[in-house]
Amino acid sequence: MTTRSFRTLDTLDPRGKKILLRADLNVPVRDGTISDLTRIERLTPTIRELADKGGRVIVVSHFDRPKGKPVPEMSLAPISEALARVLGKKITFVPDCVGAVAQNAVAAMTDGDVIVLENTRFYPGEEQNDPEMAKSLASLADIYVNDAFSAAHRAHASTEGVAHHLPSFAGRLMEIELGALEAALENPQRPVGAIVGGAKVSTKLDLLNNMIEKVDMLAVGGAMANTFLAAQGLSVGKSLKEADMLDTAKSIMTKAKQRGCDLILPTDVVVASDFMAGAPSEIVPVTDIPDGWMALDIGPETVALLNKKLGKLKTLVWNGPLGVFEMPPFDTGTNAVAQEAARLTKAGQLKTVAGGGDTVSALRHAHVLHDMSYVSTAGGAFLEWLEGKLLPGVVMLGEAGHDVAPL
Ligand code: 3PG
Ligand code: MG
């Protein structure tokens, strides 16, 4: 999959057109307040461009997981207000996403207007990708623009089904996300490396297997590394590990060797007696993890090794922390490597693309979130892309989506 075959907004004249814009307004909310506006901020260029050029912008999105019925706490109404504030433009919120309420709201629009429709997941047809739901959404508009890369791994009515019925375009955020991922993995400047951290080999198996085929260097950190160390016959004390994944880890190591991918595991770790912030800790070689202790971070020798390897790369993909970064001092390794990646990026020597769940928090914690070349807003979609999977929402913007069935 490449971005070359996508239709972008460069080829769309939005004037006077009703445009169904699939956004991802699934923002994190804590105690009724939006805790991170990144997804909203990154969406505004597309809305502004379409509205400024005279398009009638109909924003649709899911929010949270209401499971096919209206859940008042999961209304998009407050998020629509936040969007209006960031955009600096009036937005009308419409309390339904299909049917007469939505149709009437669209009929009342004039050129340059922006409306936000209620949560698509209030209907079971959204997640079921029900053709009727897709048709109802499509009937609101002339054009479909998908700017929700972070929801593109879902084959839902508003991310996939609707694109069968309307001419479909990638929004600016979608275009940027796909461009960044392509530059990192499809067509990277080499050598290209990946840092993959996190807790479990089992959840990142497809990702590791795909990475081995694409990158020249793969550094494995986090609790996942313990499983690899155990697979090499080392004792990892009471560290988190997956006993049933040892053979899998072995086969990944063998495959890496066959493919000439430099697989890097920790050579030393920070071990603690308890899983607790500030727990007594020690730095030990991986060959010397004491019984009853657990590895919670990579050690300084491993940091130095990784940082040296980073200096040789031209491109780096980062997914997952290298230690328990939420619990100081076990954030030291992640911070140090993230800061070196940031330094090389700022010096113009390295292109860094990061994304997926915890990664954004870890980079923010290391104060380098804004020093990477690109940080994806996507969690699951970023992971699935790294796994080499085709994302249904993205597929519909490529050749497959060019022939649309009329309603
Ligand atoms: C996300 O936040 O990962 C996307 O918005 C998709 O949400 P989902 O995991 O509930 O499908
Ligand atoms: Mg998710």
From TrEMBL:
<dbReference type="GO" id="GO:0005524">
    <property type="term" value="F:ATP binding"/>
</dbReference>
<dbReference type="GO" id="GO:0006096">
    <property type="term" value="P:glycolytic process"/>
</dbReference>
<feature type="binding site">
    <location>
        <position position="39"/>
    </location>
    <ligand>
        <name>(2R)-3-phosphoglycerate</name>
    </ligand>
</feature>
<feature type="binding site">
    <location>
        <begin position="24"/>
        <end position="26"/>
    </location>
    <ligand>
        <name>substrate</name>
    </ligand>
</feature>
<feature type="binding site">
    <location>
        <position position="326"/>
    </location>
    <ligand>
        <name>ATP</name>
    </ligand>
</feature>
<feature type="binding site">
    <location>
        <begin position="356"/>
        <end position="359"/>
    </location>
    <ligand>
        <name>ATP</name>
    </ligand>
</feature>
<feature type="binding site">
    <location>
        <position position="121"/>
    </location>
    <ligand>
        <name>substrate</name>
    </ligand>
</feature>
<feature type="binding site">
    <location>
        <position position="154"/>
    </location>
    <ligand>
        <name>substrate</name>
    </ligand>
</feature>
<keyword id="KW-0547">Nucleotide-binding</keyword>
<dbReference type="InterPro" id="IPR036043">
    <property type="entry name" value="Phosphoglycerate_kinase_sf"/>
</dbReference>
<dbReference type="InterPro" id="IPR015824">
    <property type="entry name" value="Phosphoglycerate_kinase_N"/>
</dbReference>
<dbReference type="Pfam" id="PF00162">
    <property type="entry name" value="PGK"/>
</dbReference>
<keyword id="KW-0324">Glycolysis</keyword>
<feature type="binding site">
    <location>
        <begin position="62"/>
        <end position="65"/>
    </location>
    <ligand>
        <name>substrate</name>
    </ligand>
</feature>
<keyword id="KW-0067">ATP-binding</keyword>
<keyword id="KW-0963">Cytoplasm</keyword>
<feature type="binding site">
    <location>
        <position position="154"/>
    </location>
    <ligand>
        <name>(2R)-3-phosphoglycerate</name>
    </ligand>
</feature>
<comment type="pathway">
    <text>Carbohydrate degradation; glycolysis; pyruvate from D-glyceraldehyde 3-phosphate: step 2/5.</text>
</comment>
<feature type="binding site">
    <location>
        <position position="39"/>
    </location>
    <ligand>
        <name>substrate</name>
    </ligand>
</feature>
<feature type="binding site">
    <location>
        <position position="204"/>
    </location>
    <ligand>
        <name>ATP</name>
    </ligand>
</feature>
<keyword id="KW-0808">Transferase</keyword>
<dbReference type="InterPro" id="IPR001576">
    <property type="entry name" value="Phosphoglycerate_kinase"/>
</dbReference>
<dbReference type="GO" id="GO:0006094">
    <property type="term" value="P:gluconeogenesis"/>
</dbReference>
<dbReference type="GO" id="GO:0043531">
    <property type="term" value="F:ADP binding"/>
</dbReference>
<feature type="binding site">
    <location>
        <position position="121"/>
    </location>
    <ligand>
        <name>(2R)-3-phosphoglycerate</name>
    </ligand>
</feature>
<comment type="similarity">
    <text>Belongs to the phosphoglycerate kinase family.</text>
</comment>
<protein>
    <recommendedName>
        <fullName>Phosphoglycerate kinase</fullName>
        <ecNumber>2.7.2.3</ecNumber>
    </recommendedName>
</protein>
<comment type="subunit">
    <text>Monomer.</text>
</comment>
<dbReference type="GO" id="GO:0004618">
    <property type="term" value="F:phosphoglycerate kinase activity"/>
</dbReference>
<dbReference type="GO" id="GO:0005829">
    <property type="term" value="C:cytosol"/>
</dbReference>
<keyword id="KW-0418">Kinase</keyword>
